[in-house]
Amino acid sequence: MISDLVSPFEAFKHAPMGVCIVNPTDNRITYCNDKFSNKIGKTKEDIWEKNYMDVLGEEWVLLGDTLEKILLHDGREIRYIENAAQEHAFIEKMLEITYSRITLDCSDTYGIALWIQYIFREKPEIQTDPLIPLKNPQTLIHQLSRTNSFLSTVNARLKENQENLESAFDAGNLGNCGINFQTGEVTLSERGRNFFGISLDTEVTWEMLLEAVDPPYHEMVNKAFADALAFGTPVDSTYSITHLKTHETRWIRVLAKVHRDQDGKPLKVFGLVSDITEQKTDEQRKNDFIAIASHELKTPLTALSGYIQMLSLQLEKTNQPIVQNLMEKSVRQLGRISSLVDSFLHVSRFDSTKMPITLSHFDFRQFIEEQRSDAKMLFTTHQIHFEEIPSLLIYADKDKIGQILSNLINNAVKYSSPASAILVNYQISDECLQINVEDQGLGISDDDIPYIFNRFYRAEHNSETKISGFGIGLFICREIIEKHNGKIWVKSSLGSGSTFSFTVPIQPTTD
Q1: What is the 3-state secondary structure (H, E, C) of 212-270?
Q2: What's the pLDDT at 129?
Q3: Which of these, 33, 284, 383, 434, has the minimum number of CB atoms within 10 Å of its CB?
Q4: What 8-state DSSP symbol labels residue 44?
Q5: What tens digit of pLDDT does each residue of 176-219 get?
Q6: Is 376 helix (H, G, I), strand (E, B) or coil?
Q7: pTM passes above 0.85
Q8: How far apart are CA 203 and CA 75, in angstroms?
Q9: CA distance 106 to 104
């Protein structure tokens, strides 16, 4: 948290006096330089993200209502500090505080910059007013001039940083947004308002934003907000909206980070909002083409499959082994083409919100016996071992889970040497079943692992043999598992094989 906040206030680091930044919305000190921590005798860990009253103690109390004054204008105060130890009774100690209002983040939230330094002077014989001015006003004027000059430099740098940030937002077609969990206040930049169709003079509310979100995504958006509020979970949501003015459909993506208080409780969420309609439109065109092409291919493939099966039956009655062998290879290649077309159809369905998932209870041990039998017939070049598992009732789409397991075993076969072992094993908890597929194959580099489940992504290998595929199998696996509220991941390293794992619920989920 500290490292995230240092850069905007780097200019204060070399200030000639102690400086701290106070956020008046929650009274936290969000930055201080070394001179400040040295003057008050505390470490930065005891200052940052702490309440200013707890940090400054009674010296802050002497400021009275200064906090409210600062929100209206800049200023300066000098306060007398009592020497409780009665040491050096002829010296009195003054606390000089110069304050200024500055802008925090990229929102309309203001912070308070405090320049604090002690002034010592000889104590007069008679003193009735703790706010007696200094004997040498020229010294005070010089110090104030230095402070004002430094303030001007800092404000200029902050303004430049703000302009640079706004330029970056403009170049990336980005807006910013935020929600204060304590007050419920919603902030949305001008560009963000344009995305939703909200006027600059209109107060933005959560209900107003949700009204623009298309109904199929209400649950997802509300859950993202609830998780951010309850657990501080970062937000990464993509959904369609209906523009509040033009009523056209737009696609929005929101990336946001949660800010917490010193106790770890979420205070607000702040982040970026972007219009990705053009990107989504291009994806939809591509998916429409894939769906149409795949659907048109299914009809001739089905007919061709029937013809080849009839020919195979006729050839069984003849004694022509070469022709029979060629026919068997044709059947296998036709099966591969049909499987590929089915995969493309699945991809096109996943981009809609209507991917069919049929959840039911089924015995996982019986399911594994079926998978063992299929694998024995389909994959004859490798040693595929299924770990024994007791009878277990799980709640999932049986056909889709079979598709995932078959895909992972097929990948293990493709990327490992013939006759090598492939192991399918399991881990059972109270809530879910974890299934692992381990191979001794080529492995995956650390650079490829974060993207391995992305659509059309294929890891590069230095193998001399070209491995066929379009990079959609693992993407389909991830989509199916997410629909089950499960997880899928891989552990791997180059040359050491891979272990793909996924979880499915044992009992129905409430989501």
Answers
A1: HECHHHHHHHHHHHHHHHHHCCCEEEEEEEECCCCCCEEEEEEEEEEEECCCCCEEEEE
A2: 45
A3: 383
A4: G
A5: 888 888 888 888 888 889 999 999 889 988 888 989 999 989 98
A6: helix
A7: no
A8: 32
A9: 6
